[in-house]
């Protein structure tokens, strides 16, 4: 094959951004919604609290009745009812009357204040108050936390535990969320065998399949692991065509470079695919290709494990986030200072694995090759090194993408 | 009930820390291990790569044979074999010989360097080399990434996608992980009804049950939601006793204060529980209680939704992390600057909900009451305000716990 024209990461990202993505939605139970992306603006259907509520244990009174009350000049009221949380008052409080009330119970009609039980004689039939209360003192208004009709949270939010709690407090049973995209994962290469099989000379265990499957799952998509395939263009083309029939997108690894067994470009031709780009002006993973077949995106990553992992973050993840309903998702990028010098400048943009902790970026020394995977164990970020950076000294500021 | 002695958060945490926790372990498939906590140190069982490997498409040669090669004085070698990734060389390279080799293929015996195909005439039976290679140039050594026996990662690590990929690359099928603790969740209170039921006057929808269930699930534990119960000490005691029989720990909400319907202290007596503490010197959630029954921890949180959520983070989560195998887990605490003043100093330590973004801490204005839940929708941290802080001005540095 001829050397093809490569695009910058920015151009590649922009071409992907131009692809229209219309995630489906579904209505599910609030109790299953954790981690899903909300597909509706959520409004309050009831007031919270649903009734005026006592914030403490004490007596519901008419505030006017309590004026001038003190230890020396207590005000005596008739206790007409006892109300606990979960009960509802049956009587209206008239002048000279009080209702003994517990935290969380509804304040009866007529009362406009609560006197703490510690400021009374705690009587059950009559009560002596040792302090006055102002109008609406210790009074939680209906709808004080949430007014019916108020926007609680917006479409596009990833539902966490607090959202589940808020929806439950509103009595909501169901919620519209975006459907979980199904992502096919297909590792290719004659050299691959699966874990559990004996290691035949010349073969290696497939790590791209399991790694990509796990990452896709971490990101809240449904990963469909497909059989690893040999380097055969016709067989691969058939498998790709079949896979896109039951996936929202497909990720392959291997076969994208210029060797005799690099079949993915031939697959593109056989399937009459629209190739968005083939080759990015960045390391690792520069041979990667993205094509569209029957409206479905097929990401063809390098077979080198770290190259596949790095290009996944930079070019695949943003698309997956849009597919799951996060149209506005952006990677978390932060700045840190290199702990040691980085001696391998490159004319092209470079993604290097690292660990950021308290603003310091640690690089696994000498273990950066795109074929190496093990040094990712302690990593939590990709360091994004511009093409023109030159050699980086210890202490240099670098931007990282959090994993 | 009499007012009881309260303990500081620090003392409460220390008493919980003293409780011995012995998480169980189990052996599971690597493909199910995502998110679990590793219960073994993981060592490499094979070298990676398993054989000396070519990092590029080209020719495997004896470096000595290539000395002096240039465009003008090419070195001509006999091509004795073609090797792709996944194949294994059948011949040794002798002087004057070369093997055509593809990226990822095993380097044949005798060869000690690879010449890039772009620096040759790309011949199939004979090849002309236009450059020399030094000994072990372009040569990936066996075990270069990982040496058999090397420690890959340690016990206690939460398994992420890279760990799954690394284990797969080693051909590992199974891994020992900590068992997932089963945590019972029981909301109590006569006022509670469940989502989907009509809202009867005086009742509220239970949000603590769903919120705690969701949070426990987010943290990788298995949440066992138990029926919400009425404020009745005997009924509650029975339910608690039954629950701890099939949970590793139990979390209740409601009934811990000093009102007539606050039954949890009576439950403690009825079940002859060891009370670790009852009452913390902090807000919100100060009435909370922790007891040990038949060796199981029972966390009795306040019924106020935000109080339950906040004390969960500070006092329950650290225990759950230990139960799932993260003995050394610490909350992520960072410093930020308040966006607005916080006007409500308190004599005791205070936990306030907030949102930290780029070092700025936003507080949901005027919506801090422990009964309010809705304002947690946009929050991602708890601001930890010491008891002696006084009024905090805008710009003040505060420490937050990330949620």
TrEMBL record, chains A, B:
Its cofactor is Mg(2+). Catalyzes the insertion of molybdate into adenylated molybdopterin with the concomitant release of AMP. It catalyses: adenylyl-molybdopterin + molybdate = Mo-molybdopterin + AMP + H(+). Keywords: Magnesium, Metal-binding, Molybdenum, Molybdenum cofactor biosynthesis, Transferase. GO terms for cellular component: cytosol. It comes from Clostridium porci. InterPro entries: MoaB/Mog-like_dom_sf, MoaB/Mog_dom, MoeA-like, MoeA_C_domain_IV, MoeA_C_domain_IV_sf, MoeA_linker/N, MoeA_linker/N_sf. Its EC number is 2.10.1.1. GO terms for biological process: Mo-molybdopterin cofactor biosynthetic process. Belongs to the MoeA family. Pathway: Cofactor biosynthesis; molybdopterin biosynthesis. GO terms for molecular function: metal ion binding; molybdopterin molybdotransferase activity. SMART domains: MoCF_biosynth (SM00852). Residues 184-322 form the MoaB/Mog domain. This is Molybdopterin molybdenumtransferase. CDD domains: MoeA.
């Amino acid at each position: 094959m001829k050397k093809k024209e490569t695009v910058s990461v920015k151009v590649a990202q922009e071409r992907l951004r131009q692809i229209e993505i219309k995630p489906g939605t579904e209505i599910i139970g609030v109790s299953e919604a954790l981690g899903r992306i909300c597909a509706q603006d959520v409004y309050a259907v009831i007031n919270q609290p649903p009734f005026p509520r006592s914030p403490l244990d004490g007596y519901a009174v008419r505030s006017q009745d309590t004026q001038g009350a003190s230890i020396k000049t207590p005000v005596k009221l008739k206790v007409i009812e006892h109300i606990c949380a979960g009960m509802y008052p049956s009587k209206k409080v008239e002048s000279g009357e009080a209702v003994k009330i517990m935290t969380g119970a509804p304040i009866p009609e007529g009362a406009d204040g609560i006197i703490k039980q510690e400021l009374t004689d705690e009587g059950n039939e009559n009560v002596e108050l040792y302090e006055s209360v102002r109008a609406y003192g210790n009074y939680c208004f209906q709808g004080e936390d949430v007014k019916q009709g108020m926007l609680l949270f917006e479409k596009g939010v990833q539902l966490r535990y607090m959202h589940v709690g808020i929806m439950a407090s509103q009595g909501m049973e169901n919620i519209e969320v975006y459907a979980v995209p199904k992502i096919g994962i297909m590792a290719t290469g004659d050299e691959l065998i699966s874990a559990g099989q004996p290691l035949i000379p010349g073969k290696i265990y497939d790590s791209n399949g399991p790694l990509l499957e796990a990452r896709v799952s971490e990101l809240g998509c449904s990963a469909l692991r497909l059989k690893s395939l040999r380097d055969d263009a016709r067989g691969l083309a058939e498998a790709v065509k079949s896979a896109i029939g039951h996936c929202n997108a497909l990720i392959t690894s291997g076969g994208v470079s210029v060797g005799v067994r690099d079949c993915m470009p031939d697959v593109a031709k056989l399937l009459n695919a629209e190739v968005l780009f083939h080759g990015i002006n960045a390391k690792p993973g520069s041979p990667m290709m993205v094509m569209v077949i029957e409206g479905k995106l097929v990401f063809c990553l390098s077979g080198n494990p770290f190259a596949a992992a790095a290009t996944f973050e930079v070019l695949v993840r943003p698309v997956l986030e849009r597919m799951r309903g996060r149209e506005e998702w952006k990677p978390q990028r932060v700045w840190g200072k290199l702990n040691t010098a980085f001696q391998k400048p490159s004319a092209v943009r470079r993604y290097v694995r690292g660990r950021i902790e308290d603003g310091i970026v640690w690089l696994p020394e000498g273990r950066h090759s795109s074929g190496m995977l093990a040094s990712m164990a302690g990593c939590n970020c990709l360091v994004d090194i511009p093409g023109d950076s030159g050699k980086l000294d210890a202490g240099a500021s670098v931007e990282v993408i959090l994993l």
